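Risk register update: the risk of archive-format incompatibility is retired. Evidence:
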Amino acid sequence: MSDITPITYSIGELAREFDITTRSIRFYEDQGLIIPTRKGQTRIYNQRDRVRLKLILRGKRLGFSLAETGRLFELYDADKSSATQLKTIMDLISNKKNDLNQQLEDIQAVLIELTGLENNCQNALASIDK
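Archived output:
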């Protein structure tokens, strides 16, 4: 029998580590994305919860909705070795990559337009100053 105690975290520790509010963490819990154990009123988060929280925040930065992140978690938890589950996860990832590439193209186009507008404004200013 092992005497190794699993690593646990309080809500405050996770909030400080990820620079988010405890309210945000409770919201992710309400959405079923993380599931801490409880000791009385105290939430106790394990390593799995910490990793999921990190993935939730990374997903948000990359444009994944919480529903999409939750779906990925569900699929992964359901059966890590199922070809169907893995293909579904890969499809979700592929769709998100396509969305992000389109956004990148749109951003690049807007940057070109803004640079042109900025140049026009600089030229107009230069002609006024003469």
